[in-house]
Structures are given as C-alpha cells and as structure tokens.
C-alpha cells in the first residue's frame, strides 16, 4: 500500500496534522490504495528531517509538512530557514514535501486564522493526493491563480 506522510508541530496553535489526516481519510482509495503515516515534531525547523525520514525510512511517496510561524520578526527569519530545509529535503529525496505554513500574522482574528489554517491544510492535502494520483487535476488548473487559505486570485485577462 502507498504511504502519504503528514508531519506537524507542537508549536502550532492548531492541530494541523489532524486536519490533513481527516482530509486524506475522505479521499478515494484511503485504506485500500494508500494509508497515512503521521509524525509530530517540536517546531517547524524540525519538519525537514522528519519529512526526509518519512520518505526514506517509512517509504512515503509524498509528505505534507505543516507549521505555524509565530508573530515575531525572528519567527519570519526562522520560517525562511525552515522552508529552505524543506526544499533541501525535497531535492535530496526527489519527492514532494508540501510546505504548509500558516503565519500567525496573516490573520489577527483567532477564529479566522483557524479557518484559514483549515482551508490551507485541506487544500494542500488534496494537492498532495493529486500529485500522487491525479496530476491531470493540477494541469487543469495551470495559470488559474489558485490559492490555499484564501480566495483564489484568478487568471489575468487574456
Ligand atoms: O529544534 C528545536 C527548535 O529550534 C525548533 O523546534 C524550532 O522550530 C522552534 N521555533 C523557534 O525556535 C522559533 O524561534 C519555532 C518558531 N520560532 C516558530 O515560529 N514556529 C515553529 N517553531 O514551529
Ligand atoms: O509546498 C506547498 C506550497 O508551500 C508551495 O506550493 C508554495 O510555492 C506556495 N506559495 C506560497 O506559499 C507563497 O507564500 C507560493 C507563493 N507564495 C508565490 O508567491 N508564488 C507561488 N507559490 O507560486
Ligand atoms: O496574496 C495573499 C497570499 O496568497 C499571500 O500572502 C501568500 O504568501 C500567503 N501564503 C503563505 O504565506 C504561505 O506560507 C500562502 C501559502 N503559504 C500557501 O501555501 N498558499 C497560498 N498562500 O495561497
């Protein structure tokens, strides 16, 4: 059976990994064609190596890496570093690791931040599934200004 990895952090203020797990559990083939392997690490700087382990030791085909950069300026610098680590892990393993970051500063209202988080994690869980099983779904949306967590920007006028 194929394996899809989900890794999230204790630092995040939303249980992002469970949102991804629930989304994947609703996709066609769950439990038959693929299963989900879940890990949680302390913070987003720990995501890259955990994702690499999910790929190399747990044979995951694709990983969804969820993190929440805090609101301080230092956290933005750290987010950039964490993202670089995730990109390095993708290049080293040759597998997609979708970086799902929700910045605390994107939305000051806690309820709306949670909603944004649900939407972004859910959308990227579907994107991970499509990368693996339905690349034509991505191709259909080429150049359509698709976003995760907020309204789509839409295409520019032709
Ligand atoms: O490796 C242990 C920690 O360094 C690691 O877990 C960090 O990701 C923790 N962390 C910070 O040290 C920090 O300054 C995090 C943030 N900011 C942050 O904004 N979000 C995190 N972790 O998930
Ligand atoms: O791995 C999943 C996403 O992290 C990845 O697809 C990013 O490239 C998506 N993305 C951002 O997260 C972002 O903050 C993009 C932009 N900005 C951007 O400006 N242009 C993009 N993607 O193509
Ligand atoms: O234009 C508003 C947003 O699209 C823009 O601020 C993005 O950079 C927001 N964003 C992130 O900050 C991020 O870390 C996005 C993603 N990840 C993402 O994966 N997908 C997005 N936006 O559409």
TrEMBL record:
Q: Which Pfam families match?
A: DMRL_synthase
Q: Does the keyword Transferase apply?
A: yes
Highest taxon listed in the record's lineage? Bacteria
Q: Enumerate the GO terms in the molecular function aspect.
A: riboflavin synthase activity
Enzymatic reactions: 2 6,7-dimethyl-8-(1-D-ribityl)lumazine + H(+) = 5-amino-6-(D-ribitylamino)uracil + riboflavin
Q: What is its EC number?
A: 2.5.1.9
UniProt feature coiled coil, ranges:
none
Under which main EC class is this enzyme filed?
Answer: transferase
Tell me the keywords, alphabetical order: Riboflavin biosynthesis, Transferase
Task: Check the record and name the InterPro entries matching this protein.
Answer: LS/RS, LS/RS_sf, Ribfl_synth_arc
Looking at the keywords, is Transferase present? Answer: yes
- Please name the pathway: Cofactor biosynthesis; riboflavin biosynthesis; riboflavin from 2-hydroxy-3-oxobutyl phosphate and 5-amino-6-(D-ribitylamino)uracil: step 2/2
Identify its protein family: Belongs to the DMRL synthase family.
Report the protein name in the record: Riboflavin synthase
Question: Could you tell me which species this protein originates from?
Answer: Streptomyces cinnabarinus
């Amino acid at each position: 059976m194929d394996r899809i990895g989900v890794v999230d952090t204790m630092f995040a203020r939303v249980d992002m990994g469970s949102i991804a797990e629930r989304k994947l559990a609703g996709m066609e083939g769950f439990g038959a064609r693929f299963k989900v392997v879940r890990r949680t690490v302390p913070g987003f700087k720990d995501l890259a190596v955990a994702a690499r382990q999910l790929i190399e030791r747990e044979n995951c085909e694709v990983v969804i890496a969820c993190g929440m950069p805090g609101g301080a300026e230092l956290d933005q610098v750290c987010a950039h570093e964490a993202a670089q680590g995730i990109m390095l892990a993708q290049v080293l393993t040759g597998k997609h690791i979708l970086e799902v970051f929700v910045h605390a500063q994107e939305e000051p209202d806690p309820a709306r931040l949670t909603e944004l988080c649900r939407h972004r994690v859910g959308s990227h869980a579907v994107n991970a599934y499509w990368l693996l099983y339905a690349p034509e779904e991505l191709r259909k949306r080429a150049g359509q200004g698709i976003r995760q967590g907020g309204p789509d920007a839409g295409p520019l006028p032709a």
